[in-house]
Amino acid sequence: MLMSDNSIRQNSNEGLNNADDVIENQSFKQIYLKGLVMGLSDSVPGVSGATIALITNIYERLIAAIASVNLFTLCYLLTHRRGHVWRNIDGNFLLILGLGVLSGILISARTILFLYSAYPEPLYAFFMGLVLTSAWVLRKKFRVHKFENWLMWSLGVIFSLILSNVEALVAEIGYVYIFFCGMIAICAMILPGLSGALILILLGAYEFVLTALVALQFNVILVFSLGCLTGLAIFSRVLIWVLERFRELTYALINGMLVGSTYMLWPWQKFFGCEVGNEVSRDLFCREIILPLHYTEATGNPVMIPQTLFAFLLATSLVIYLNDHFLKKRN
What we know:
Blueprint: H1 2-15, H2 28-42, H3 49-55, H4 59-67, H5 71-76, H6 82-88, H7 91-108, H8 112-118, H9 120-138, H10 147-164, H11 175-189, H12 196-202, H13 206-215, H14 218-245, H15 247-261, E1 269-276, E2 279-289, H16 292-299, H17 305-330
């Protein structure tokens, strides 16, 4: 079975970890910081940590490492071959990145979410700049003149737009439901353009899970984590299979989902209760896109155009700098 795991890892490396896609010899500090930013972004509805992984050139390495972990490799870690198995699953990378993601989630529960509630316009503009500029950079992953790539790109845009207009429902929450939410949310978190936080909102569990994290309710955190691990074990293998066989089509779809997700990141939005029958439900919310000219009148919040533009340009500059930086390191 170890040979099977080795073959998975070898095939993943051959098909995915090309010289122009990942940087193998990254310092622990770099990996931790990338995980930190992934964790920060995952807590904001509309933003995906996988998008950050794509920007920082660790996405395919991450998926390949996750896919190489299973019950058998975990058992082998208890034997005298633990060093070989640890290297086989890229253990140092997963451990340091995971610590960064966890740190980012814990920090964002008090900081990013404060910005989300107090200064949503610049925050959304910042992430919108990240996503749009990343989509422009990542267009090199597929040939733009091929019709089938453009078709997949269009499907990605449409899928993101449909998802962003689904009404959120607050469900009765129990341990089984929390486990299910973890499975679904983690699939979104490792797909660029899909937000795990948004999925939790649509499933009605976002506030519940976030409160559990802040209050350190370990029973809820454990069940949710088990759901995430189960979803990762299943979905990462699906992604590996798809990327190995339909690489360009997959990146075209991902790029389209990135562009389509910017609808959710429009800085000037209004949320309100949706009508069910003749009554306004507290369990459903609707989203309305508003032009800056009418934003203050509709919401009572300041437009903050200078701050919003600055945040957008800052994000754009950051992605361009990171892309140039990694290109120089590869060269």
